[in-house]
Write a structure and sequence with these properties.
There is one protein chain. The chain is α+β, with helices and mostly antiparallel strands and about 230 residues long. About 25% of the residues lie in helices and about 30% in strands. The strands form five sheets. A four-stranded antiparallel β-sheet has the order 9-8-13-14, with helices on one face. Strands 1-2-3 form a three-stranded antiparallel β-sheet, covered by helices on one side. Strands 6-7-10 form a three-stranded antiparallel β-sheet, with no helix packed on it. The chain is elongated and about 80 Å long. The protein starts with a helix and ends with a strand.
Length: about 230
């Protein structure tokens, strides 16, 4: 029995030992024994299942979003400004409610394509023009011109691809211009609709919506503005 006791103590130096429904553990240098308890894992509720699916979807979406932005450090800079640990943590906190598991983005007007400390655009109008869009915004009375050189960016989703974000960089266009025209290549399904004679920008005879997000960034790429949404 003494030898058996020493063997148990040696086995339990790291963690308790379970054998035949009994758990052996050490407490204050003494060998203790208690019946093992096995709890059956509860089946996840519908709410827990939905939360898990949404979390998985947001993680997948974040990967595609980073691919669309390339080297543009929008969320890393925003996280630094707001004292968040990482950009993906801030993105998840602000946008997870706009994303559904297995669906992608569903609340497009509430979705934040960009965020940051620069003044956000005051959008005046948004309209389609061919395969792209024309956006116009207010130019404030910034007499010093401190923000006039901010660069213009346009994020967008095709209505047929709510899980695939895109980014268009308006080269040579600045905040002071007040207007930008951006070409947006059609999604695969839209292109197929065109080839079937459904009409320009149509799918099965219906116009496919574009979800567009206008935002600004400074010349150094260290500050960005919140995005403003337009559906066209």
């Amino acid at each position: 029995m003494v030898r058996t006791t020493h063997l148990l103590e040696a086995c339990m130096e790291e963690k308790p030992l379970r054998m035949e429904g009994v758990t052996y553990y050490m407490r204050n240098g003494r060998l203790c024994v208690r019946p093992s308890r096995y709890r059956k894992r509860k089946k996840r509720t519908t709410a827990e299942e939905a939360a898990s699916n949404r979390f998985t979807e947001v993680r997948k979406f974040w990967t595609l979003y980073r691919r669309a932005l390339g080297d543009l450090p929008v969320w890393r800079m925003a996280a630094r400004e707001q004292g968040a640990n990482q950009g993906d943590t801030l993105f998840h906190r602000l946008n997870s409610g706009c994303i559904r598991g297995g669906e992608g983005v569903w609340a497009f007007p509430a979705f934040r394509f960009s965020t940051g400390s620069l003044d956000m655009p005051a959008l005046r109008s948004a309209r389609r023009e061919g395969d792209g869009v024309v956006l116009e915004w207010e130019v404030d009375e910034d007499r010093a011109g401190a923000r006039w050189s901010d660069r213009v960016y346009v994020g967008y989703f095709h209505g047929t691809d709510p899980r695939v974000p895109h980014l268009a960089v308006a080269e040579g266009v600045c905040r002071k211009d007040g207007r930008v025209a951006v070409a947006m290549p059609p999604a695969a399904e839209e292109a197929a609709g065109k080839s079937d004679g459904a009409g320009k920008g149509l799918k099965g005879g219906r116009e496919v919506p574009l979800h567009v997000y206008l935002f600004f960034g400074n010349e150094e790429g260290t500050r960005f503005s919140p995005s403003v949404y337009a559906g066209v």
